[in-house]
Protein 1
Amino acid sequence: MSLGSNIASARNLKGLTQEKLAEKVGVSFQAVSTWERDENLPDTAHLQKIAEALDTSLDALFGKEKRDWTLKEMCDDPERMYTYVKTRAQSENLEQTLKALPFMREKHKRQTRKSMLNSNLPYIVHPLTLCCHALAMGLTDDDVLPALLLHDVLEDTDTKPEELPVNERVREAVCLVSYNTYKGNKEEIKPNYYNKIAKNDLASLVKCIDRCNNLSCMADGFTREKMVRYVIEAEKFVMPLLKVVKAVPAWNNAAWLLQYQMRALTETFKRLL
């Protein structure tokens, strides 16, 4: 494929219009159009900006990379996961989890998850994946699972803490991991946010499992710049929370697995980014 074809392909994959790419690079959309039709070549000074705007490499743009693969969905079927979690909760008599499941689905029902391939991916795939992750690690605690299911409800909907169908321990953990329950700019309050989470074992566990999933899926919806910030934040703030998780004997195995997963993901991304 030509350079122009590769630019067009990468732009479409990112869901960008020619106008948007032109804005990011600092040229006219007509310039982008002529590049993609192979009528003109980009100036050398623009090549790196094009690669950054498209979250790709110069080698990929020039066709020097061999990519014999197709992109596939990174998430499982939400209805299948919902049924699995519900069935496990019923078999374990997890009353809070059974209340949190429909509550979570109702609150997030019109929301979608960022994805390159599926702009209509239901948001509930995220909390359900966290819940399945916990179950796969042997965590069947009726405080852990509802906390994972509801961890984004306060931050992403108009729900108030007192409306959550859970006990005070779960409610407190959900509040602690929700940025909108703190006052101030997100970046400014970040140290205080993580300090408070570190004083609560359940909130620490929720944050670690949440970060594992987001690290795993960030290539499907994050910009390169956000990926870099996310890896730095994971190492600086999230991974230290594993000490809090390890302090709970029943969570020792989960803590080891979470440590392995986060370290493997952050180290992989550091090498690729």
Note: Residues 252-272 form the longest helix (21 residues).
Protein 2
Amino acid sequence: MTLDLILLSVLLLSAIWTVMTIRLVHSVVGLALTSAILAAIMYRLNSPLAAVFELSVCSGLISVIFITTVSFTQRISKERFIVRRRERLLRFLYLPFIIIIVGLLLVRYLKIPQFSLPCLAQVTDVRLVLWNMRHLDLLGQAVIIIAGVFGVVVFFKESNK
């Protein structure tokens, strides 16, 4: 249980660092770290197949694609970098505090349900396993895909200035 809390805390910290850093390379490294920690959590939840896919695709392949994309971008001037960093820090200054407060309130006032993993069975049909036994895995993957889509849309959105 303690290791799970440590992994979740490190996952949250790396996700915040990924969002708050101004340098794209640091964001990609933070994303890879977040994905690797998530793979470890998935493995601890007896979902090794999902963990392997998370580690290989999200932490490996997606990071390589992002690093390649970042290498094709132009560097901004030092002055513009300082202005963008200040704007970003002001925009996300409240984010860690809100996450900490919400986390403390959830731990204190919300009774967290204990999810039980399904019993290991000798089911050979992947469709039966995914649709009947691994609902939380599917929900997690859908949330990750939707968050990735929104992240790409926000990242490539042209500014109106």
Note: The mean pLDDT is 79.
Protein 3
Amino acid sequence: MTLYSCVNPFAPKIDETLGEAKGLISDQSDVEGVFQNFQYAYAFKDTLIYSQLLNKDFSFSYRDYDIGADISWGRDEEMKVSSGLFQNSHRLDLVWNNINSISGDSTRIVRSFNLTIAFNPTDIIFIDGRVNLTLIKENNKWKILRWVDESNF
């Protein structure tokens, strides 16, 4: 008891080791940092981090199987859609799986993922899909230039 008498459990000492490990947010200096920040942005519903993933000329496209057409939009619309998803979901769990293909210069990556969207405890959607990303390096940061969603809904 006397050993702990001077330790205040409500004022623990600063953990000096926090800066030594790789943090939750990447500087996107490598391609894996893009995926790390993507996962972080979804988990914490962080539009600021998400916006930093997208190049100013970003485009998103997917196949709408109901109408039999490809749908596309740019960066501004992507931010609106993502913000709506972040605001209207209770929880987002994104898991990146294997890289299916990658170009030699890492500018084109196809990767599978699992996404769980919980709108409420009884409304949960599970998505298994694939992204086809075109990346570009600007100011020593990798950013997403084009995202083609190859998921089958």
Note: The radius of gyration is 19 Å.
